[in-house]
Amino acid sequence: MERPLLRDIVFYLAAGFWAFFVYWKQEIRLYDSLGFLGLYVAYIFVVLVGRYINNRTRNGSLYKNGTLKIAFRIKVENEYEHMMNIYHANS
Hints:
3 helices; single chain; mainly alpha; 0% strand
C-alpha cells in the first residue's frame, strides 16, 4: 500500500470515528468542532511535511554525491555478472 493512500485512510478513519462519537452523543460542542478543525490542520501539516521529505529524497539531496545510488548500481551489476557466469557455466 502506498504511503499517501495509507495516510488518507488513517485520517479518514479518525474523522469517521470522531463523527460517529459526536453522533452517538447527539450533541456537538465547541471542543468537538475545534477537534475537527485541529484534525484537518494536522492532516495538512502531514501532507506538506511528507511532500517536502519526498521531494528531498527524490532529488537526491539527502545523499552525498549519490553514494547510495552508486553502491546499489554496483551491487546490481555484480549480481547480474554472477548470474551470467552461472548461465554460461550451465550452457
